[in-house]
Amino acid sequence: MASIARKNLFEDIPRFLVAQAGIMFAVSLVTIQLGILKGFSRSTAIVIDYASADLWVASKEMVSFELTSPIPADYINQATQTPGVDRAEILLLRAGRWRGPDGKLSPTRIFGFNPDGQLFAGWKLRDGELNAIKQPYSAIVANGVQKSLGLDPPDERTGGSIGGLPVTIVGTAEDVQSNASSPFLFASLETANAYGSAEVNSSINCTRNAGGDLNCVNSFKNRPIGEKVGELPTPKPLSVGDPITYILIRAKPGEDLPTLKQRLTQALPETQVLTQTELAALTRNYWEARTGVGFILGLGATVGFIVGMVVVGQILYASVADHLREFGTLKAMGAPNSVIYRIIIEQSLWMAILGYVPSMGICLALGQWTQVTRGIMILIEPSTGIAVLVLTIVMCVGSALFAVQKVTRVDPAIVFKA
Amino acid sequence: MTAIGFNRFFHKTAALDSTPSQALTPVKEAAIVATHINMLYRNGSEEFKALQDVNLRVKAGEVHLLMGPSGSGKTTLLSILAGLLTPTAGQVCLLGEEITKFSRSRLAAFRLQSLGFIFQGFNLFPALTACENVEVAFHLKGIQGPQARHQSIELLTQVGLADRAHHRPQDLSGGQKQRVAIARALAGDPQIIMADEPTAALDSHNGYAVIELLRELAKTGGRTVLIVTHDPRILDIADRVTDLEDGKIVPH
Ligand SMILES: Nc1ncnc2c1ncn2[C@@H]1O[C@H](COP(=O)(O)OP(=O)(O)OP(=O)(O)O)[C@@H](O)[C@H]1O
Ligand SMILES: [Mg+2]
Asked: How much of chain A, in percent, has pLDDT values that exceed 70?
């Protein structure tokens, strides 16, 4: 009995292929939308996930990872002295305007941290060495953003600058860029601080002309590009008054985190203390809610699902209509309705599986490609894969129900009509 | 039932049956009893009386022809006798059971168990091979796997198509297709075979082969065979003929 479903399906191969193309389109659309959502969400806090701190001390005003106010550098000492703290490290987040080798500006996010530290930089390096950022004015770039920084070819090392200070790329960090953020650069505390505070000099000269109108000239002065590092002032070490962004805390073994959290909040006024998981979740929620990306991509996935449903429904309906006489014959022969349902549902399951498998392959390949070329991850975790499989099956079997209706209404007496 | 047994039975009951509507209660010897069948087709406000007070008795083991001009209601009557169409009025008893009282699912089960169909248009499954077409009937009857395959091949051998068992209908001639359909109708050995114009779509040579086959299966299997036909050659194998005209039985 089983073979009727399969053979009816494969009887007309061109039509079957067109059908499968439609299903693959729908499945891919759903997968890509879900994958982008997952990949985006993951990326917004991936840099936090790579850290191995127990607690993060942030400004009381912090809204999400990259949207926060500074706290005084001096807090690092107090944090270190707080009982229960095993280790405390500074993390600096600065914004910078990057001028690429091509002369074009691009925003960047600069992370400053101690390369000898243990809590922040858990990510893998694609090339280069972490210690290389100890050299003044050198930085590690997140992989995938080279193009937006005008680094072409992507392994171009020099030629970029921030606020007139040159930047030498000494390494590439794998899978760390947030899709919601400017390109990431990782540098030592001193270098990051220097980049972050390297203001462009600008002056406004105004004169009043004869008519009494104010005539202003805004002139910018950048440090000349290509100046040798040796001629630059060595970046200053952080001083007590400098603003920092986060303090990463490792608790002593066996320390109760909620208690330590309280202790730190009391010791460090105007701060909030979060566990690493809390900070990551907060940041992901922020981006999903704030950008509406969840809604938009969810909408895309829903549209994909509906398109798939319509495509499969249409094809099954047409197939059933084509084989109506055969279904009528089965009914006349005495086949119970369940047999007929089974044939149609089996047909829809074949379509689901044969649409799903290649689509997943395409999406995985596409995900690889976007990750390598654009740094945008289409994250297809096993759970996403299973979810899409379930959706595909629901989609196909659901639309089979349309087709089933047509058959149950078929009058077995049609079998005698020539 | 053997051919001898069948013949004896036929002679014994023939005398009882001079008027078709004589006995209305299901008699064991009557495989098909239809009583006061009326069929009214309604198309919107238009009504058409396709059958008017039709009474019919078909004895077990006989080959019974239903003849008549086009539009006289033969197919309608056959559909009703097969339980595929519900009459506007009247009763149908098959093998002693009043099927007009059955629910749809019970009717389906009854057809599966006791009826085999042969259609003018063959109604084979085009995507399946000849053998698979016969197997479907076995599968429906709960016989699966190698057993179904084996019995299908056996039936195809009986209808002379052993060598074509693995061809699809598109690669068979009309006569061969009809023989596959006959093999399928025989699967599970139903007691009643109903055929609507089994030779109408065939040329005379193929038609003749099919008639021969029907004769054989009627005479050797002891089955009841009801054939709707225009084909006068089938008269040769008929035990009895009922004529239908304008939805009414023509008295002989
Ligand atoms: N579904 C229907 N609705 C309305 N009228 C119908 C329907 N089916 C059949 N009829 C009419 O009932 C009459 C009998 O039809 P039927 O098909 O039983 O004739 P038939 O004797 O089998 O004819 P043929 O020899 O041409 O096959 C015809 O006049 C036909 O037009
Ligand atoms: Mg007819």
From this structure: 93
In contact, B193 and B111? CB cutoff 8 Å: no
Cβ <8 Å between A415 and B84: yes
Question: Looking at the structure, do residues A75 and A217 belong to the same domain, yes or no?
Answer: yes
C-alpha distance from residue A137 to each of A165, A192, B180 (Å): 7, 8, 86
Torsion sign, CA atoms B148, B150, B154, B157: positive
Structure tokens at A166: 């040159």
User: Would you say residue A29 lies in a domain?
Assistant: yes
* pLDDT tens track for A308-343: 788 878 877 888 888 888 888 999 999 998 888 898
Whether A13 and A125 share a structural domain = no
- For residues B10 and B2, the answer to whether their CB atoms sit within 8 Å is no
| Choice from B54, B75, B119, B243 to test ligand 1 binding pocket (greatest atom count within 8 A of CB) | B75
Phi then psi for residue B210, to 5 deg, are -70, -40
CB atoms inside a 10 Å sphere around CB A120: 23
Q: Report pLDDT for A261.
A: 93
Q: What is the pLDDT of residue A308?
A: 79
- A334 contacts B115? CB cut-off 8 A: yes
Query: Is B42 touching ligand 1 by the criterion CB < 6 Å?
Result: no
Which domain range does residue A113 map to?
61-269
Handedness of CA A81, A82, A85, A87 (dihedral sign): negative
CB contact under 8 A, B136 and A416: no
Q: Where are the beta strands (DSSP E) in B115-235?
A: 115-118, 192-196, 224-228
Min Cα–Cα distance to chain A from B105, Å? 7
A27 in the same domain as A163: no
Q: Is residue A55 part of a domain?
A: no
CATH number where B27 lies: 3.40.50.300
The domain containing residue B31 runs over which residues? 3-250
The answer to whether the peptide bond before residue A336 is cis (omega within 30 degrees of 0) is no
User: A250 and A117 share a domain?
Assistant: yes
* Count of domains observed in chain B: 1
Ligand 2 midpoint to CA A24 (Å)? 45
Tell me: do A86 and A172 sit in the same domain: yes
State the Cα–Cα distance between residues A192 and A324, nearest whole angstrom.
73
Residues listed for chain A: 418
Number of domains in chain A: 2
Give A270 or A233, the one with higher predicted confidence. Answer: A270
The number of beta carbons lying within 10 Å of the beta carbon of residue B252 is 9
Chain A residues within 8 A of B197 when measuring between CB atoms: 418
Ligand 2 geometric centre to CA of B175 (Å)? 19
